[in-house]
Amino acid sequence: MKLTITDLKLRQELDRVFVLHWTHFGMLTLSVLTDLVKLESFVFDTVLLVLLITFYRLYYQTVKKLFYTFWTLSIVLIVYLVSSLLFIDLTDVQFYLHLLSLIFVVMEMYILHNPIYYPIVSWWEYDFRYRHDLKIMAECEGLEPLRGRMNDIRRDSAGIRFFEDLEIGTKLSIIHNDKTYVGKTMSKRRYSIGRPWTYGFKFHLENEEEKKAYTELMNEYKNEKDTKVKSKFKKTES
Questions:
Q1: Does residue 71 have a pLDDT over 70?
Q2: 83 vs 220: CA distance, rounded Å
Q3: Helix (H/G/I), strand (E/B), else coil: 137
């Protein structure tokens, strides 16, 4: 299930994510150490420091390998930071360290909230009638036309799924409703054996016509998603 990325620009962006990650870790560690050196609650502060290091060791692995548990741990951390800012008696220095940590965590989440890194795929929906995706065909030089599905269209990107194993950086012409969208694969992951490959796909948007076509596709996807959700709940209620 590990995500594979080879694009240099994406690797550089991930390096910035790692810098943010270790920056808010350093700030929270410094916050704990300011209490630890006072020796007022040495045992408690030592345990807190060990827990913090253990948490961040696990947290870093989810970022490094881009596991979906990153989001769960991020929410846990945000809840802790917000609670500490509101309910814990912090010194002025600790308050700003926690506040800056919160800001950096949110920045890290914003960068990674992209289909290229974390495509949202509704695997829990077993009824294909209610899956949040669009049927597509893809053309690629040297290959037969591919049948697949596209989902999670946002931030000039999307998640596309094929059973075929494609190289990262493969240029594709995606065909949907007789319209063609050009772009290339930027990342790929496979959730389990027997499942299709999920690719992070970046649209080629160099002119107004391509941007307009992308906007229409994104709106169509959102409308299709809303329609399927409403249809499912109507069936459940009936």
A1: yes
A2: 40
A3: strand
